[in-house]
Amino acid sequence: MKAIVCVKQVPDTSGKVAVNPDGTLNRASMQTITNPDDLNAVEAALQLKDATGCKVVVVTMGPPPAEGMLRELLAMGADEAVLVSSREFGGSDTYATSQILAAAINKIGIEDEDIVLCGRQAIDGDTAQVGSQIAEKLEIPQVSYAADFKIEGGKVTVKRMLEDGYMTIQTSTPCLLTCIKELNAPRYMSLSGIMDCYAKPLSVYDYNTLKDDPLIEPDTIGLKGSPTNIFKSFTPPQKGKGKMLEGADKATCESLAAELLTKHII
User: Fold this and answer.
1) Parallel, antiparallel, or unpaired for β 155-162 and 165-172?
2) Which residues lie closer than 8 Å to 242 by C-beta, 6 or more apart?
């Protein structure tokens, strides 16, 4: 059994986000982090490994520096890593990205008992589309917004979060789940993991590696294969400093109520 986890290196949105003239992110000029929801997916895979001894493979699409992020995930406990990186893949939107990642998963190999895990969404685009699109292109069942799940006898029972509660869904493997932060608390890298992470295998899949997959066509990858057109990208203005009211007396409560009324909150 394998747990294949799709992760993304994203800009640290606590700082300034730089944008190229064509509307794509200038990632070279920004600090980057591992997408937070993807860390929950990694932790879910590592918990499966702890319980069953399965192999955990992490895969990301990005520029060569994304190798550093993958090494951190190997230090957390993942067994193998795959970096999907090629100029032909640059500028891909969610549709093209899912084409490429699905081809990469085909290259890794997905078997009957395997599971694919993704984060709910990435903090740079917030589309929550790539995970579901990967499942469609792999032609496997999918369950999004997984708050809990268990695997027994080839069946996966998922507690799926809704806006007003939860629903329980059962499906079979292989399948894809998108994970939310309520699923778990990601672990830290261990000292032994840091020492061993450079001894673990890390493969690089470029265009030539994946070009024989039916999903990889010049018209379905990169900017040319991306049907989404960005009209404008910009850094939103910083929020102003909040106003603090101190005290627990009647006058403070009246001042608070007045402020809320002025801002049409109440």
Assistant:
1) antiparallel
2) none
